Amino acid sequence: MKTVVITGSSKGFGFAMLKEFRKRDFNCIISDIREDELKSAEENLKKINGRGEVLSLYIDVTDGNTVKALIEKVVSKFGKIDIWINNAGVNQPDNYIWDIDDNTINRLIDINLKGDIICSKIICKYMKKWGSGAIYFTEGFGYDGNARSKLTLYGSSKRGVNFFIDSLAKEFEDTNTNILAGHIIPGIMITNFIHKFLGSGKSIEIPEKTKLVYNVLGDYPETIAEYLVPKIIDNKKQNAHFVWLSNFRAARKAIKGFVFGKHPDYFKDK
What we know:
It is globular, with a radius of gyration of 18 Å. It has a single domain (about 5-205, about 220-245), classed as NAD(P)-binding Rossmann-like Domain (Rossmann fold, 3-Layer(aba) Sandwich). It has helices spanning about 10-25, 35-45, 65-80, 100-130, 150-175, 210-215, 220-235, 245-260, and strands spanning about 5, 25-30, 55-60, 85, 135-140, 180-185, 240-245. Strand 5 (about 135-140), helix 5 and strand 6 form a beta-alpha-beta unit. By secondary structure, it is an alpha/beta fold. It has a seven-stranded parallel sheet with strand order 3-2-1-4-5-6-7, with helices on both faces. About 45% of the residues lie in helices and about 15% in strands.
């Protein structure tokens, strides 16, 4: 029975992915810095039928010691980790870069970019010993070089992650290491992530034009995870890209939403 660890998975897209892994009989490890949410997430995940076990463990992706502690706990119980998904991330405040304080800049880069690097470095050493494994990354706006005002900080962190994945995959190839690295590209998701920054309770005011884009092109994480997780499980390709909002899907949604005005309203109860 295989084991998957997803960081930042007490809710949102990480939790949605774990539900799909659970259905496919994986041992599922919920890992998050929000300790108060871990137990309820574990109880909810166990409600889904699956032959694998469910664990919830604390992790701070910016602190290598907590990453190692989590891995050791999982390995002591299950022997190894087959899939590791770097999913933990935070949004930025709806401000221009010159209006963002240094602490916010440091915290976002520490989580979104350095956290992925730290976790990958550590799990790599274990997977090299095991002789196999896969490390995937949830990507966000800016990963492909697109730029947008008031997403300068967030987009820069995700652009950096994209480069790191490509380079990590290259290092695995150059050293004939039997570990895969790959990109999970969910597109626009409707979660609390878009309303809050730095994972806090501080709200982001979303402009009406942006809400329209979310309504037309967005989807709930459960819909996206149901489509992507089977592809992640079956993958044998180095540096694979698992894409939900493809050009074709985006064009179809745009015609239906922008041209004909047929789209859900994800913000009506907000």
